[in-house]
Structures are given as structure tokens and as C-alpha cells.
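Chapter summary example.
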Amino acid sequence: MHTTDLSFKEHILEGIPNILPEPKPYDVSINHAPKRKAILSTEEEKLALRNALRYFDKKDHKTLLPEFKNELDTYGRIYMHRLRPDYKMYARPISEYPAKSNQAAAIMLMIQNNLDYAVAQHPHELITYGGNGGVFSNWAQYRLTMKYLAEMNDEQTLVMYSGHPMGLFPSHQEAPRVVVTNGMMIPNYSKPDDWEKFNALGVTQYGQMTAGSYMYIGPQGIVHGTTITVLNGFRKIKKEPKGNLFVTSGLGGMSGAQPKAGNIAGCITVCAEVNPKITQVRLDQGWIDEKISDLNELVNRVSKAKTEKETISIAYLGNIVDVWEKFDEANIHIDLGSDQTSLHNPWAGGYYPVDISFEDANIMMANEPEMFKEKVQETLRRHAKAINKHTAKGTYFFDYGNAFLLEAARAGADIMADNGIDFRYSSYVQDIMGPMCFDYGFGPFRWVCASGKPEDLAKTDAIACEILEEIKKNSPNEIQQQMADNIQWIKGAQDNKLVVGSQARILYADAEGRMKIAEAFNQAIKNGDIETIILGRDHHDVSGTDSPYRETSNIYDGSRFTADMAIQNVIGDSFRGATWVSIHNGGGVGWGEVINGGFGMVLDGSKEASKRLKQMLFWDVNNGISRRSWARNEGAVFAIKRAMESEPNLKITLPNFVDDNLLDNV
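The structure predicted for these 666 residues follows.
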């Protein structure tokens, strides 16, 4: 049977086909990854080709070798475009996957959701978001992984080495079905050029956070966190969002959530983006209200919105630096300012230089990488200078965890505090998310309805809302605001049309909320009210990530450059019942700058699922609270004491506080 005649299930079971499919034409309508810089020596190029060909029978090597060489020369990577499946890529109902294990079928569903054209940033290059956050490095890895998942049983574990399926190993029913590692380098080999080199060789990849963990749910995943950040940002400056202005940039994967969050918060949002394709995608999806490409028109539109106290999101198709400079010149007051371009990836498409067209910048990036780097750093200096002018007028600017301050400092921008050690501006975790949410155990809990039915999602929304309202009745004052924000969020979730891809939802919850919501879901499945649910979270959470410039930037005991918490987190999740676990080098602030871990958990209505969710979710949150408590974060000390009261088997070492006056007199 010819490969084009196969059904979807037969395609999956085929894996890497014996007869090669026809080559695929380059689709210009798709948003593609930029060409990566040529970094391999001649001998290393041969090694990259040898590495790619090992997926294929020798009879196909002569056919594939020139093709793969052309991909390496053209794109800087070997994606194996010929092997891209012909079937539509999206999260199908779990029953449509060929699988011996229901847990494996759930993972297949999540992988396909990550590569859905409506979800993924560069779907043909298997990149979900962030410019380089890959699910796999090539299409052979995808095909082989899906075949393994279809074949595996509940006494096997699939081992994933940076996108490569090493194989199925014997394990047991309580073990994770999949264990994922991405980019786990020897520390001295974790610089940006190391990623370029070893990724081009096909031996490692950048899993970002939820891309390589198969847990990305489209921009909704960060809409909620961004909404909370914007709301609390306005609270911090004691202003209502209504009629006030939030200026930022980035409309790609995660950053695409910003204008939608601004609308939910109720402010005026201006978000700049240089890529016309992704800007149009966000407009078509309804994540932005208007698109403007002329600065004078933008000034007039924002002035009108301020006068009329509108809630509106505007995409500026152009460079963010021009916006900051123009608004200074036109005396447009910015209340909140930030940036969410992919500055963890500054030299490969994460941030674009001003005064150069998008197309010319992409050519320069590939052909003149040193010149491109110079232009990016010049732009960062201009960017910081423009921000400084606005903050002198009262703008509250925060780093949004995308390494803006770090890269601006490296570029020599005027961004340092008077002590020459700290940055002039705080990160949003230091000022907002850390003390208000993470220290109390609140983070981005999420779930996916494996049936694909919108009615299942509506039922889970109602269940979650009911649970949160009940918990709030007896919650201490310290967490009443968090509870109220999340109840408001979940009540408006359906109206805000947040679903892109899978039928998924996110809300911020602590351990109590997560366990009670999950248990209620499991009971509803048992009763036949809903079908299978897949639990997960963003890595951007209480415990999963050690990131000194973002998730753990409000850790002040000197341990923020350690990664014990993230490693302990994924180990603990593994033996407490997670369906799959992942640990990555990279994430939203850059290769070599963070270690982060995630999980997925399948709820099937069973007693075993009930036991697993209680064991794992309690650990998954309280691991991080205990670390934050030991760092002397007062909110975390409060939260871990409360956790110990609720669970007699929890015994945590508490810190003793030292009198500052005593130290000052040493």
C-alpha cells in the first residue's frame, strides 16, 4: 500500500516508512524558523549528516544525503522535511490514537497539540514557541516517537534524549510512561554557540519549557499569568487599568498572550511585533483588536483610547524601540512597560534590530552573524535609553523574565543600579509573582480534556469554580486576593475564547486547590460525567524551575544560581505518580541560564489515579515552598507552616531570622 493511502492510525504505526515519501515543497504560507548561522566545520557537517542518516536504511542514504546536505546549507539544520506527515496535525480525541496504553495515547495527543499549526510558532521546523523551543529536532524523531507510544504497554517507559527516542525500557505500572530530558549539557558546554553547534549536529535540542514537555496549550497558558501580572502591576502603582496604558512587545508563542491579557485586565495595550505573519495570525485569532503600522496613527489612536478610557489591544507592526521613542516625543504617558521578545535567543531571531527591515535582518542574521549581533546590541542600548526617559516621567517598568535586562546589560546599556551589581528595574517575579503568588504556592495549574469535547471543558470549568469558591470561604486573609482573581478568571474563561488547539484550561492554584480540583475531576470521570483529563502545569511555577533572573529571582539567600530544586522536583514527581516527566536546560531566559522541569498526569477515574494525584501534586508545590521558606521569604514561611498543619507527615526545616542590627555591628 502506498503511504498516501494509509489511514491516520496506519501512518502512526508505520513510523519511519520503508518506502520514502515524496519530497515536500517549501510552503511559503507557513511561519518558518529563521536560518541558523553556519557554525559547523566541514568535518562536523559530515558528522551531522552521518547522525541524520542513522535513522534510515542504507538503501535510502544516497537519496537522502544530498537532500539533508541542502537542508543543512539552506536552514542551518536538518529537519527532514520529506518525512513531515501528510495528515492534519492537531490534538485528536484520545480514542482516535492507536495505543495499547491510555496514558501513551494521552501523550500522543499532547505532542500533536504542540505541533498544531494554530498553536506552534514554526510548525514545519517542529518549534512550538520562543523561536527555538522544539518538540523534536527532526521529523524522523517525531515518527519514531509516535510509533513507540502506539506500541508501548503500561510496564514500559519511553526514554527521550533531547528529542531522540532512545527506546522503550521495562519498568512498571507506577513508573512514568515517558521521561524527557532536553539540552542537559555538561556545564562548561552551555553557551549560546554550544546550542547552535550541538543542535546542528542533531545531538541536543532546546525544549524551551512546555514545548519539549508536550504541555503547551497555546497562548492561553500564559494569558492567565499575564493577566495576574498586569492586574497586580496596576495595583502596585495604585491605578485602575481602565484608560491606562501598558506597552510591551512580542506576539510570537508565549508573548502573543499579552494583548489578550491586557483586554481581560481592562487596560489599553500596545504590543509591537516585527513579524507580519505572526501579527496577522494574532489578529485573525482575535488575540489583538487592531493592527497599526504607522507611528503617527498609533499616537492618535492611543490618545483617543486614553480620552475615552477604552479597553483595547493594538498591535504595532514594527520595532518596539520606535514606539518608546515616539511616545516620548509625543508625550504619551506609559503607565506599565515591559518586553517579552525572545531575548533568551537574541542572535537567532528572538530580538530584531531597529532601522532594518524584518527580511534584511533575517538575511544578516544568517550571513553576517557578528554584524547582526552588533546591531541587536545597539538596539538594546537605544531601547533601554528610551525606557529610562519614560521611567523618569513615572512609568513603572518591569523585566518580564525574557532576559531583557540581562542582555541589555551585556550590551552596555544604561540599565544597572547605582551599586553596579543589581539591575535598575526589578523582574516581575521579584515585584509581583514571587511575593504575591509563588511564595504562597500559587502557580499555573492546567488541564486538557482528552475527549476534545468543548462540553467537557465547560464542565471542568464549573467544577473548578465550585471548588475554588468553597476553599475561599475558609482561606486566610493572606491568599484571599489570589483566590478572588482566580475565581473571576475561571468564570470569564468561556467568554474570553481562550482555547487555541486542545480543549484546555489554566488557572493559578496552590497545592490544596490543585489536589481538590484534580480529585473532583477524577470523581467526575468515574461517574461518567466527563472523559479522561490530562493534568499539567507550566514550568514557570513554584517548584519546577531554578532561574536566577526569573522564577527564583526573589530568592535572596545566595542560592538562586543553584538548581537543586528543579532536579529534586522532577525526581520526586517521577516516583510519586506522574505519567510523564521532563527536565530541561534553557527555558524562557536562555540556554545555560535556567534548569526547569515539568510533568503530565492522566486522570482516568481510578483509585490509583486518585492516590497518585494526592501524592504528586502535594510534593510538586511544597517542594518549592520549602525552598522559598528556607530562603527566608516570609510568605513561604507562612505557607509551609500551613502545609505542615494539614499534613502530619510533612516536616520541614524552618529558618531562624537574624536581627539586621546585630549583623550591622559585626
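To summarize the output: The CA atoms of residues 133 and 208 lie 4 Å apart.
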